[in-house]
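Pasting as-is:
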Amino acid sequence: MSNNTRHLTGMHIALRRLALPALLAFAGLCASSGVGAAGERPVAQGVIAAPATAAPVVAVAASATSTAATTSDVPAAPPAPVITNGLVRVPDGRLLAPDIARIVTRGELVVAMLKVDTPPFFFFDDSGQWTGLEVGLAQSLAKELGVKLRFNRDAGTFNAVVDLLASGQADLAISKLSRTLARTQTIAFSDSYLTLNHSLILNRVKFAQLSHGRPLPEVIRNFNGSIGVIAKSSFADYARTNFPHAKVQEFPTWNDVLAALHKGEIVSAYRDEFEVKRVLKADPTVSLVLRTVTLKDLEDTLGIGVAVTDPTLLAYVNQFLAQRTEKLDIQKVLQALER
């Protein structure tokens, strides 16, 4: 054999030696691919997923199930409101401020009102009809807005009425609410629709023991006896502010205050002039044991409560009150009580 022939034969042998491992590796790869195609997931190849065709089937099935549940169980979301220059276009085509649009779109004005009937402001009459000065006020507002009216009477105290409004459970609060500094930290108030003076009812015997013959104005201005008020009411705050030396006692209801006054457990009862005069009108004979004092320099102004987030609604309520031809005063309230 020539040198050239021996050289070529050596090269062929070397090439076969190099090619054999490569061929074996290639064969192993092909075998591995064949196992994957059969749907078996090799342990060593954790990054290799199940067959590509399986995933879309599962995704589509889940999507179909989700869509069916959404369609049958959950109502479709209303279309997003169209806002133009901060105004909302309501279904009838009008552009309204957001706080007004909320009420108009809902079709209902919700008014918070105390659960305890308070004639002549809000009460059920002898025929079972829900009526009163403030009921009429709320009805007129709802009519002007072109919506239905619903009262939320969950509140057991006047401050709880404020809380209903502040927590978003009502659009307005109309409930013989006094406009106080404490409440205006939480809600906004309309202009006053009724102004009443403050008044005291005194137990004659207890007051005589307290005064020791001093003039009435002097005793009242430096009053250091006991004063009964309704718990969590505006007059509970007024009493502590206007009579800092007095002992303020809170009672669940006005009737409880009056009962304590008759028994001599407290020297005086404190509320607005209407409620005080109402006591005498209901029973003139009580003047034998009780006497009243009206404080002309102290006023209790009643307003409609509005959420602090509803500035346009507040302006609307103020304009509504300004346009009303019938203005309330103490005489009209007392006359309404007699009807």
